[in-house]
Write a structure and sequence with these properties.
By secondary structure, this protein is α+β, with helices and mostly antiparallel strands. 31% of the residues lie in helices and 18% in strands. Strand 1 and strand 2 form a beta hairpin. The radius of gyration is 15 Å and the shape is globular. The termini are far apart. This is HIT family hydrolase.
Length: 143
């Protein structure tokens, strides 16, 4: 069985934000929560404790860097970090800038179904560009 997270970077280049040493960052296709980003390990691994300490520390710094960039762009009331892996057993974080005005505030984003919010290609590019700028990256730069 093929892991959907392992394939995501190749299959959805239009949602790529940045490639880091340990992880990839991609805008989630569903932008019901503006800025909702996925950060996932390049290596197929399922648990933090499977990593060597240096890799684990590096990944945590990458998570922190992306979360700080999202906070700068979206000015959330709270940043949500989800690391589950029950449905997709590949280590990945859902980084979700939360606003007090969002329809599910303050409940978890999965507390009830919502209609998917799909942006235009130009809107995805604009959001990704703003996040990349906050990360200190130019449009085509790799980390």
């Amino acid at each position: 069985m093929t892991c959907p997270m392992c394939m995501r970077w190749q299959e959805q280049p239009e949602l790529r934000i940045a490639e880091f040493e340990h992880c990839y960052a991609m805008l989630n296709g569903d932008q019901f929560f503006p800025g909702y980003t996925l950060l996932f390990t390049k290596e197929h691994v399922t648990e933090l404790f499977h990593l060597l300490p240096a890799a684990r520390a590096g990944i945590m710094e990458e998570i922190n860097r992306v979360a700080a960039a999202l906070a700068a762009v979206y000015q959330p009331a709270k940043m949500n970090y989800e690391l589950l892996g029950n449905m997709v057993p590949h280590m990945h974080w859902h980084l979700v800038p939360r606003q007090t005005t969002d329809p599910l505030w303050p409940r978890p984003i999965w507390s009830e179904p919502h209609n998917e919010c799909v942006l235009s290609a130009a809107q995805y590019r604009q959001a990704i560009g703003r996040i990349r700028l906050a990360l200190g990256l130019a449009a085509g730069d790799k980390e």
